[in-house]
Amino acid sequence: MTHRLHLPNVLTLIRMPLTFAIVALMYGTWPWAATLACGLFVVAGITDWLDGKLARERNIVSDFGKFMDALADKVLVLGVMVALLDLHYLEPVPAVVVMLIVLTVLTREFMISGLRMMAARRGVVMAADFWGKIKTIIQMTALGCLLGEPMFRRDFAPRLGFWFEWIAQSVHWIGLLLFLVSIWFMVSSMWNYYRKYRHVLFDVPEA
Fold this sequence. Notes:
By secondary structure, the chain is an all-alpha fold. It has a single domain, classed as CDP-alcohol phosphotransferase transmembrane (TM) domain (Four Helix Bundle (Hemerythrin (Met), subunit A)). The protein is 80% helix and 0% strand. It has 7 helices and no strands. The chain has helices at 7-26, 33-57, 63-86, 95-121, 130-160, 163-197, 199-202. The longest helix is centred in the C-terminal third of the chain and has 35 residues, at 163-197. The radius of gyration is 19 Å and the shape is globular. The protein starts with 6 loop residues before the first helix and ends in a 5-residue tail after the last helix. The mean pLDDT is 86.
């Protein structure tokens, strides 16, 4: 059987090199590096929405596409999170708290990936979780805001005036708040997946 690389899969795969470019630009100290990092993150977020939309509209949803979409999302979110931590973009949140949050993200993703594999072996389809979708929207918005803070502070404020310093501070605090809120939705989503599909692990009746 011949496998074709459809446009939705191309958009998914593009998110991988975009992640490397975003993280590299986050460490750039030259003018407009922060703006490019934030802009590419927005592009990556658009590809995340667009690949699934096109796949459903064209009826070309595939196991490869679903697997790579989930993997690309994990690489993007975790890569940016670790860079934000290393660059102290998440201050004044203590580094230990951020590391625990990153570990929570890893735990959720590995747990759900494991559940999906076990469910697939048993012929069970795991439907997308509502709280998981909300978590993704809030999480991506939070990371976008946190990437926007250095963009406004370093690239816009020196050239366009004091107001952009204020915008940078506001965007930073909004990003931090949304980042912490996303953790609640992430844990809720993890619990919902476990509650609904724990029977694929323990052979107990579905609740």
